[in-house]
Design brief:
Alpha-Beta Plaits; single chain; 2 domains; binds iron/sulfur cluster; alpha/beta; TIM Barrel; 365 residues; 13 helices; 38% helix; eight-stranded parallel barrel
Length: 365
Amino acid sequence: MKTLEIPLQSLIQGNWFKLICGASFQDLPTIRSLAIAYSLAGADCIDVAADSAVINAVKEGLNIAKKLKLEAKKKGFNKYNLPWLMVSLNDGEDPHFRKAEFNPLLCPKNCPRPCEKICPANAINHNGVIDEKCYGCGRCIPICPLNLIETRSYVSSINGILPLIKELKIDAIEIHTQVGHEDDFKRLWQGLTPIISSLKLLAISCQDHENVIEYLNNLYTIISPLNCALIWQTDGRPMSGDIGIGTTHPAIKMAEKAILNKIPGFIQLAGGTNQYTVKKLKEKHLIRENLLLENIDYYQLAKTNFPYIAGVAYGSYARSLLIPLLEQLETTEKSIYLEENDDLLWHSVKIASDLVNQIKKKRLD
Ligand code: SF4
Ligand code: SF4
C-alpha cells in the first residue's frame, strides 16, 4: 500500500491546518518567523504570495524549524512535519491581490490618523503605506475622512509564475476565483499546463454566491482529470478572522452548502476563521471523529468524498496572535532572528500550537 504524505493524511482525517501568510503580504522577517513557529506547531501547509523573496523566506524558516524539531519535541511540541508550500494566484480582480496607498503629503497635520490605528498589519506610518506589510484587507479605506486611500490591484502573471513554481519546487497552488470568472479561470488553468503534473495539491478559493455550486461544478469540469488532491476553499469573509468571533460563520455556511451538494474534493474553510471556528464546527458535527488510524488505505480514501470538512486555514487571526511577539524582535538587543531568542521562539510556538491543536485534537471533551 502506498503511504501518503502527512499533509494528505491530515486532509483525509479532517485535521488539516493551513497557515495563510497572505497573497499580498511580503514582510519577509515576519513571514520567516511565522513559518518557523507554525511549522514547529504542526501546520500542514503554508500559503504565501507568488514572489521569490517570500518563498525563499518561508523556505529559510522551514529549514530552521527542521533543525529545531528535536528540541521542540523535548519541550512537548511533537507535531512537526515538513508543511507543503503553496502559492496563491488569481484569475481576476480579488481583494487578496491588492495594496492600499495614499499620498501622505495630503494628510492634514491634525488628523487623528484612524487609518494607522485600524491597520492590523501596522502597515501605515507618516510616510504612507509600507507596501510589503500591507495585505490588502481594506479596513483603512472607508475610515479616512478625506477619502485619500486607494487600492492598487494586480492579477497574477503566468510568465512570472511558471518558473517560480518549477525552480522553487512548490508543492501546491491556490487559485482565487469568483462566480462569473469562468473564462479567466480557464485561461489561467491552460497557462498552468506545464506545471500541473508536478503539483501535490490544487486549491480553489471562492466566495459564496447564489450560483456558487453550479460555478464550482463547472470549474471541476475544466480541471478534470486532475492527478493531485483538490481542496475547495470556502472563503467566507476574507481577511477578517481577527475582527471578532462572528466572522467565522460565512465560511461555515458555504462549507455546509458544498458538502450538501457533494462537490468532489476536500472542503476547507478560510476567510474569517478564528478561535471560534473549530468549536462551531464541532457543534455542527462537521468535524470527523473516531477515524481509526491503523490499517487505513489512505490512497483509496483520498479519492472519496467526505460529509465533513477536511480542515481549516487561518490567515489574519493566526498572524495577529504572533505579531505582538514578533515585533519585539525589532527592538530586542539579542538578535533579530526568532531562533536566536529562546523565550520569544518557544512562546511563539506555544501560541501557534494552541491554535493548531484546536483542529488536531478535535474530539469533543
Ligand atoms: S488596513 Fe489593510 S489595506 Fe490598509 S494598509 Fe493596513 S493591511 Fe493594507
Ligand atoms: S486618515 Fe486619511 S488623512 Fe488621516 S492620516 Fe490617514 S490617510 Fe491621512
